[in-house]
């Protein structure tokens, strides 16, 4: 339903506060479209940013690994926006073209064997619990 | 249709050759159910093992990262067998419980934002090409 | 394969009869693209319209709730056409922007927790049967 | 919510009429669980049977091809019940083990290349329209 | 990897605080398995509960509608745990068997037409923007 | 990341060898975009072509049936590129418009009943094993 992005100049103080935190955290001049569309629902904007910020902060996994996992899920689901934005983020975090190639190879193979398992109705080995 | 695993003792020489290569490559005593069911179609068994062996060999990405990507895809697709087997493989390759927790957090968040993007019909930013 | 819509003026009597019923039922001047493409297979056109007409008629659930459920499924599946058309229908049936925001928030969260459940392999509680 | 099958002896006349038509059409002694659970909603039972009967009748495609397509979709979606029941139906319609093996090989490959296409964001060739 | 639920008596103070808030909010004696498995990652447990609590609180949409949307997504994705738990929650919030039947009918139809749209490559009507 | 096709004139000898084999096998003057994008990862290009060539060769199933199965999976997954290219291939292999219509009808119905089965949580009949 919301079909236009909400730009900073048109945003409420509540929305601007989130935009400001995104820009500061990511060191960017403007937020990307995802946030400008979510801004139609300030509660979802705030909660989603807060969750992503917490989840994507390097911890036991580094930023690059997390971005590649994001790309893997998005490619499986066919979300073009998310593939484009998180491939860009992974690249910024150090993903080389060779790494992207291997990432996609694993994603492709996993999607293939997931369905072979389904079709052959393979039972979980006792060893895997 | 094939509803029983093909054990080594009952396997054809062609199938045994694949089982032997899996056991040697992975240093295990027996192959897991996935291969024992695929063995009903020796051509698919051979091709799938050959592809997985090539793809999962450490290259630009290490073994642990590749196994975690496999888990990410399998969790998105809801393939229980693949979640169980590749979580075990990732653990063997060094995944700690903290790493698993962060992996699942990213997988969950990516699945959420993929659908927010769909629902809000967010157009790809010019910067992402 | 069918790459062009079949307009009323070019339609067979069988197809026109369905178009007429859609226009009468929905009080619209023309049918939307979905029907004009399905018309390449008159049997599927007729059966799909007949099913949708029966299913979307208000019953135990009202029209708005049904349209929002349609949007929820379409956003999960990433079907842009269906998201666009059923969001428009939901809006016509009374969906406010606040309702759309909450709808999308639930869709996003459900997609997230579905995968957390998969990854953690959570068994169904006895209480849920 | 409905957690028990509705057996013929406990079914309403409306439900029995559908069961009778399924048994007659398929030449079986009893209907399978799918119908016994759908019977909690007689309108959906009737409509679904009527659609399946129309769709699965041999036409431009024969019964075996239709059942294999059903298996292909169900394996992609991970619906175990549907994989089991439609694999049985395909077998009954003449699917050999070699055919099942090739069916699964195509399903696996299609699922792989679908995601490679997503990840590489391959644009549709002009030749495909 | 975490294959056992974490019961209240074995939980850390951080985890117990979340369990207590769930029990208080939902007026239940114990939390369901989902939370007991997520508890292996206290940060995800806390964040997920906080998000769900915020999202599922009645607002522009009532509790029943939200639970039915949750079921719709979970049925599309094939997450059995989520189908079972949210069907129970919807029932508790007032979903009758007739409402469940209509909910499933819409979910089924949406999944069907989503794929008809894909296969026929139906372009979005200008009217839908 | 790779956002441009690699044309024959710019390709390495390794990539040209694959392009040449595709052109010879399929009797076409140029390869389609899928291969030109995969060429950014020559190992994946070679392996994917080798697998597809083996899998799509007529065997227990003929070429037309295999292409229709490919379309069925791609329509379920919503991969527009794959729907377009494999619909074209199926048509070339003899798929009439009536066959396409029945193919899509089965795909639609399978996607619907897969979700009815999920929602009603239908247990596999003993007869299906």
Q: What is the chain-wise order of helices and strands of chain A?
A: HHHHHH
Helix vs. strand class of chain A: mainly alpha
Low-confidence stretches of chain A: none
Q: Supply the number of helical segments of chain A.
A: 6
Give the fraction of residues assigned to helices of chain A.
Answer: 55-70%
Strand content of chain A: under 5%
User: Main sheet of chain A?
Assistant: none
General form of chain A: elongated
The average pLDDT of chain A is 96
Oligomer: homohexamer
Number of strands of chain A: 0
Gap from first CA to last CA of chain A: 46 Å
> If you compute it from the alpha carbons, what radius of gyration of chain A comes out, rounded to the nearest whole angstrom?
18 Å
| Largest interface by Cβ-Cβ < 8 Å | A-B, 63 and 63 residues
Task: Give an overview in words.
The structure is a homohexamer of 129-residue chains. Chain A is mainly α. Chain A is built from six helices and no strands. Chain A has helices at residues 13-26, 33-38, 42-56, 63-77, 80-92, 97-120. Chain A starts with 12 loop residues before the first helix and ends in a 9-residue tail after the last helix. The model of chain A has no long low-confidence stretch (mean pLDDT 96). Chains A and B meet through helix 2, helix 3, helix 4, helix 5 and helix 6 of A and helix 2, helix 3, helix 4, helix 5 and helix 6 of B.
